[in-house]
Amino acid sequence: MRTELHSALLIVVMVIGTAGMRFLPFLLFKDEASTPRWIRRLSEALPQAIIGMLVIYCLRTLKLTAAPFGAPALIACAATAALQFWRDNSILSIVGGTALYMILTHFVF
Amino acid sequence: MNATKKATLRAALKAALPVMVGYLFLGFGFGVLLREAGYGVLWAAVMSLVIYAGSGQYVGVGLLATGAGFLSALLTTVAVNARHIFYSISMLKTYQKAGKEKPYLIFALTDETYSLLCSGETPPGTDPRLFRLLVSLFNHSFWILGGMLGNFTGAVLPFDLSGFDFSMTALFVAAFASQWKHSRDHLPALTGIGCSLLCLLIFGAEHFLIPAMLLITAALLAVQKLRDRKGGAAHED
Lengths: 109, 237
Fold this sequence. Notes:
The complex is a heterodimer of chains A (109) and B (237).
Chain A: H1 4-28, H2 37-58, H3 71-87, H4 90-108
Chain B: H1 3-36, H2 41-50, H3 54-65, H4 70-81, H5 83-96, H6 102-107, H7 111-117, H8 128-153, H9 166-181, H10 187-203, H11 209-229
Helix pairs in contact in B: 1-2, 1-3, 1-8, 2-8, 3-4, 10-11
């Protein structure tokens, strides 16, 4: 079944499924007093862990068992991190890392 | 416009720029896909405006194209977006005192926007509330713009941009490196990487995210318990 109404309702369902996930914790824990202490402490440690998880998520389909063994992505990731450590400028790190990745995938590997 | 507002605007643009450019192209890709599935520019604009989720919308094109049932569409969307619960939990404190823009800030918490705001810190000399709102708005507008442009032109770009999508990986790597540089406690970062790698090995690329979230939560809580027992809790609060 594919009608405009059905499509529009599907979009509403997708909004519920997406925004619902984003709002859920805020609905459960309305203010600081109603937030259990362990959740508050967890929320302080989470950002760094989540960013680590997102890095792995981005690299999840990398094929390490066959040539070039994920080399372009891994080299570009290392370069991005090194740039960030050195200059602490996100735009520079992202542009530099992406440019290196494109050079590596188009011309080297 | 006073000096703080101007400084905030400039800082927000600078912080959001990589995501804005990335979203323009990722949104473009979504727009092209949606057009190929037979939906016009208005559909692209509305979806990017009200759903606002990268992988969610790419999956959504498939749901629309096949005329999926509502329950399966809901379950699929929830599975694709479950990680957002995680982001919101970690933003509870930061957004607790946000004003009337709070619902929008929560709605607009994509992976990339989260990575820009999750440290809870804002550049010096800026208005934190305005900074967070602007970063969210800039990213959202470029996501919508990209989707509309891609849908409108409906064609692949005239130059080879394969590999450009690495920019979003680089965004997270840069955020990771920056947090590492500016924090003394690296255990949370290592926990995130370690648990995710472990779950990726066990569950595979398609299914590792939710187990990884659960394992990370359990590991972080266990670390807290251990530190409490050692009496390290006092200087952490």
